[in-house]
Amino acid sequence: MAVSYLRLDPNQIIDTVETLSRRIRERFPNANLNKVCDSLLEVSRKAQVRSHQISRPMYFLRLVMVSLIVSMIVLFAYILRAFRLEDNHIGLEDLLQMGDAGFQTLFLIGATIVFLITLEARVKRKRCLQAIHELRSIAHIIDMHQLTKDPDRLLMAGPDTKSSPQRTMTAFELTRYLDYCIEMLSLAGKVAALYIQHFEDSEAVSAVNDLEDLTSGLSRKIWQKIMVLPTAGRDLGLTEPAVAPSLPGPGSSPQTSPAPSQESST
Fold first, then answer.
1. 8-66: per-residue pLDDT in tens?
2. How is the chain split into domains, by residue range?
3. Phi and psi of 86, rounded to 5°?
4. DSSP states of the chain as a string?
5. CB 219 within 8 A of CB 185
6. CA-CA distances (angstroms) from residue 154 to 62, 105, 157, 192?
């Protein structure tokens, strides 16, 4: 079967997320980023099913809507037919009151018909927005995981505090970690695009565009960190992470210990 380059293939997206998950696990087996990528993979698989359901017509709901609309029209026609207007028993004031009541009835019937006609689109829109909100949460979680991965620590080593995060990555490892975060953010945007591929609702499209703006902004922020790392490795010749000296106690001299070889768990 020929591959189409005019639409997103959910199977290809799932395969890409699976490959990325294996890459992260092989490079950082103890990192919590593995769990985030596993969540993205699970959401990607759900998106394949959800997007297909959203794109399909809701025949049962349409049948119910048509039945209600036809019933309302038939009932209104029956009332008009059963009504007998006798000129000698009705005045102008009564005629105006009946006309006003009839206009309000027509307005309510019309509003009800519009509500029923747009019900399917609103149900699909709600499902789509809920799924996109799920992806937006994952994007923020990815950003939280890279928040403390600061390349400046490779350039300027200083004393750590009790609350300082552990930094055990080399410049190469930190580059790979940040690059994985960028890839995950990009894939989150592609998963969101599946929902509007066959459902061109204006609110859903706007929500996907907002998510892509969010992931693009976060990716640019991470990319700025990556751009600092080659300079750090070239200027300092770092193959291992810089180790901050411990704060010396009274009468003791500061000492440094070699960096541990195990990778970060965040």
1. 999 999 999 999 999 999 999 999 999 999 999 999 999 999 999 988 888 888 888 88
2. 7-154+167-231
3. -105, 115
4. -PPPSSS--HHHHHHHHHHHHHHHHHH-TT-THHHHHHHHHHHHHHHHHHHHHHHS--HHHHHHHHHHHHHHHHHHHHHHHH----GGG--HHHHHHHHHHHHHHHHHHHHHHHHHHTHHHHHHHHHHHHHHHHHHHHHHHHHHHHTT--THHHHS-----TTPPP----HHHHHHHHHHHHHHHHHHHHHHHHHTSS---HHHHHHHHHHHHHHHHHHHHHHHHHHHHHHHHHHH--SS---PPPPP-TT------PPPSSPP--
5. yes
6. 62, 74, 6, 36
CA 208 – CA 88 distance, rounded (Å): 64
Specify whether the CB–CB gap between 174 and 150 falls below 8 A.
Answer: no
H/E element holding 122?
helix 119-146
Tokens of 239: 């193959």
Comparing CA positions, the residue from 180, 146, 173 lying closest to residue 229 is: 173
Look at the pTM and tell me if it is higher than 0.85: no
Q: Cβ atoms within 10 A of the Cβ of 266, count?
A: 18
